[in-house]
From TrEMBL:
SUPFAM superfamilies: Glutathione synthetase ATP-binding domain-like. InterPro entries: ATP-dep_Glu-Cys_Ligase-2 (IPR051680), CP_ATPgrasp_2 (IPR025841), UCP005522 (IPR016450). This is Circularly permuted ATP-grasp type 2 domain-containing protein. It comes from Vitreoscilla filiformis. Residues 67-446 form the Circularly permuted ATP-grasp type domain. Pfam families: CP_ATPgrasp_2.
Length: 470
């Protein structure tokens, strides 16, 4: 919100003027009102392994009243970079399961793909509509200081399998409009409420060939899943059925849904469960969450799965360092959005550097998620660093490392008042017959002072994200 010299940045001027006139008691009352409404609606998330409250408790995601504001020009550049990156990633997934040109060119080592836990040999040679595998991508972006004092956006992670969080983006906006309608009357803030319409349009556009009026469903693992609220919310917002695996069956390689009027053919499944649980005939035989025969119908081209089977091969952290090269290889363009510099610990020289500088780096498991299985060197104790060193030496190929970025902060309304807290941004990129997204995304905030971990599953919160229109 403030530049290095302390001056308020131009795109925050109007909001800052408003905020400076608000009594703290009023802001506290608004926060309590927001919590009450969120609790009533049932907007919860599972926080796993929380020391204070027992294992796996349902919690409200803390909602912060102070928005993150992005100027129009910055968003336009980010939007172009996101479309470019997700297009290249979809080309890569198609290539991996077909001609493997990028492997033949020596750009990515073959063993990095073949031995990847997310690589699905069952998908080799399988054609999907428009060659699109990741129809809904959540790309995690951070803003960090550069040596000249300016800020730049970096991609921290690509989520191409079952990205979550978009319901919180939509509910946060609704809440801000309810609590502070005057702020929206005085500024041109780009809307996000049309996301469910764009999502449905995207899903319908990738229906199997020859299907003119596709039936779309949302497939959920069930009400005990940590993101069940989102599954139900999106199905309701799109006006489509929310189904579980037991509601579906396959006959003659077509998928049907059981209804009170008899079986109804299903053409597009927005699935919110991982590959392993989709079809007990192909993946985990003990899965009761999926539908037997589903992958056979998918391979026959009679149903579209969003996202496609095997997309995880492109969002593994061991593949992340190669994404800029993918952009150049498939699109012949320079990447608009940069990666964070990354050390691959399976490389002997990189490993040597990481071990020598462990207390200054962030080290992550290549298959880790949700902020688990990682070391934030500067915030770790000597004992934690040494314990992690042992894991790293035992299995170096399981880790990557990155410098600790000077992440941007945003004013956040905490118990002590307004204070800076680190943030990231997850825009949601939809890929159908065209690539589109709503302006902004979900801003996640690390509520603990000095913390860099924003994940909701570890107690992080969220903010509304405002993209100011010209």
């Amino acid at each position: 919100m403030h530049a290095n010299g302390g001056a308020v940045r131009e795109h925050y001027l109007t909001y800052n003027q408003w905020l400076s006139q608000q009594p703290q008691e009023m802001m506290r009352a608004r926060r309590e009102e927001a919590e009450m409404i969120f609790r009533r609606v049932g907007i919860t998330f599972a926080v796993y392994g929380d020391k204070d409250s027992g294992e796996g408790t349902e919690r409200l995601i803390p909602f912060d009243l102070i928005p993150r504001v992005i100027p129009a020009q910055e968003w336009r550049e980010m939007e172009k970079g996101l479309a470019q990156r997700v297009t290249a990633l979809n080309r890569f997934i198609h290539d991996v399961y077909h001609d493997q040109e990028i492997l033949k060119a020596g750009i990515i080592p073959r063993e990095q793909i073949i031995h990847n836990a997310q690589f699905r040999p069952e998908m080799m040679g399988v054609n999907v509509p428009h060659n699109i595998y990741s129809h809904i991508a959540g790309v995690d972006i951070v803003r960090a200081a550069q040596s000249d004092g300016s800020g730049a956006y970096y991609v921290l992670e690509d989520n191409l399998r079952v990205p979550s969080g978009v319901s919180y983006m939509l509910e946060n906006r609704k809440m801000m409009m309810r609590l502070f309608p005057e702020l929206f009357a005085g500024q041109r803030i780009a809307p996000v409420a049309h996301y469910p319409d764009l999502l449905l349009e995207t899903l319908r556009s990738v229906a199997p060939n020859g299907v003119n009026d596709p039936t779309v469903v949302v497939l959920t693992p069930g009400m005990y899943n940590s993101a069940y609220f989102e599954h139900a919310f999106l199905a309701q917002q799109m006006g489509v059925e929310l189904v579980e695996g037991q509601d579906l069956f396959v006959k003659d390689d077509f998928v049907f849904m059981r209804t009170t009027r008899g079986p109804k053919r299903v053409d597009v499944i927005y699935r919110r469960l991982d590959d392993d649980f989709l079809d007990p005939k192909v993946f985990r035989p003990d899965s009761a969450l999926g539908c037997p025969g589903l992958v056979g119908a998918y391979k026959a081209g009679n149903v579209t799965l969003s996202n496609g089977v095997g997309t995880g091969v492109a969002d593994d952290k061991s593949i992340y360092p190669y994404v800029p090269k993918m952009v150049e290889f498939y699109l012949g363009e320079k990447p608009i959005l940069n990666n964070v510099p990354t050390y691959m610990c399976r490389d002997k020289d990189d490993l040597g550097y990481v071990l020598a500088n462990l207390s200054e780096l962030v080290v992550k498991e290549v298959h880790g998620a949700g902020g688990y299985g990682m070391l934030v060197g500067p915030a770790a104790t000597k004992q934690e660093v040494e314990d992690f060193r042992a894991h790293l030496i035992a299995n170096p190929s399981n880790y990557i490392a990155q410098p600790t970025l000077s992440l941007s902060t945003c004013p956040t309304f905490v118990e002590s008042g307004i204070a800076p807290r680190h943030i990231d941004l997850r825009p949601f990129v939809l890929s159908g017959t065209k690539v589109q997204m709503v302006p902004g995304g979900l801003t996640r905030v690390a509520l603990k002072e000095g913390s860099l971990v924003v994940n909701s599953s570890q107690g992080g919160g969220t903010k509304d994200t405002w993209v100011l229109e010209d």
